[in-house]
């Protein structure tokens, strides 16, 4: 039975990775309120090196729809502003000489519905990833059974355990998607 533990643990770990990837992707979807993860993919030139914003500035949320980017080194302010302008964020930075304010615009109802569809699509991609992990685990279990590592009854029990892990991961993905949809639609 010890041979199967790595198979189930790997499957569970890989399904968790799919959930984490989903959360990261959904964090990049602007929901009409300030969220520091919107800036995660933006890097600015800092002494000749592309550096992520969160490593060169503090990012705070002073108001529900405002992000404040305060560089640790004031000389980097212009480069940070350039990086934000060049990004696909679609928000114009307001530079006051010491910090940059990003005002997140209110979303229209139509845009909220589009974003909710995008969230569902990301959720579906995560579920496909979870099902692929399940398929691989089931294949590994069947190979182990053919190799004589465990009996047919044990195989059946292990397949049930794999399905339970898959169902739990699917519910988790659904919960993550539902939370993000709620955040977007309520604004």
TrEMBL record:
Localization terms from the record? Cytoplasm
The keyword DNA repair is annotated on this UniProt entry: no
The record's listing under InterPro entries reads: Ribosome_recyc_fac, Ribosome_recyc_fac_dom, RRF_sf
UniProt keywords (A-Z) are: Cytoplasm, Protein biosynthesis
- Positions of the Ribosome recycling factor domain: 22-185
Q: Does the keyword Protein biosynthesis apply?
A: yes
What is the protein's known function? Answer: Responsible for the release of ribosomes from messenger RNA at the termination of protein biosynthesis. May increase the efficiency of translation by recycling ribosomes from one round of translation to another.
This chain belongs to the protein called Ribosome-recycling factor
Give the species this sequence originates from: Lactiplantibacillus brownii
Q: What is the lineage of its organism?
A: Bacteria, Bacillati, Bacillota, Bacilli, Lactobacillales
Gene name tied to this protein: frr
């Amino acid at each position: 039975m010890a041979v199967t533990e790595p198979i189930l643990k790997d499957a569970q770990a890989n399904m968790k990775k799919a959930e984490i990837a989903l959360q990261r992707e959904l964090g990049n979807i602007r929901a009409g309120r300030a969220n520091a993860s919107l800036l995660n993919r933006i890097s600015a030139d800092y002494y000749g090196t592309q550096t992520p914003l969160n490593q060169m500035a503090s990012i705070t949320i002073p108001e529900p729809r405002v992000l404040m980017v305060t560089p640790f080194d004031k000389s980097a302010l212009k480069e940070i502003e350039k990086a934000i302008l060049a990004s696909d964020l679609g928000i114009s930075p307001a530079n006051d000489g010491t910090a940059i304010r990003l005002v997140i615009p209110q979303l229209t109802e139509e845009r909220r519905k589009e974003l909710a569809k995008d969230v569902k699509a990301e959720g579906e991609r995560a579920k496909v990833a979870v099902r692929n992990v399940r398929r691989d685990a089931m294949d590994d279990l069947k190979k182990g059974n053919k190799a004589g590592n465990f009996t047919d009854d044990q195989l059946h029990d292990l397949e049930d355990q794999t399905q339970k892990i898959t169902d739990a991961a699917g519910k988790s993905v659904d919960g993550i998607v539902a939370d993000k949809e709620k955040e977007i639609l309520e604004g």
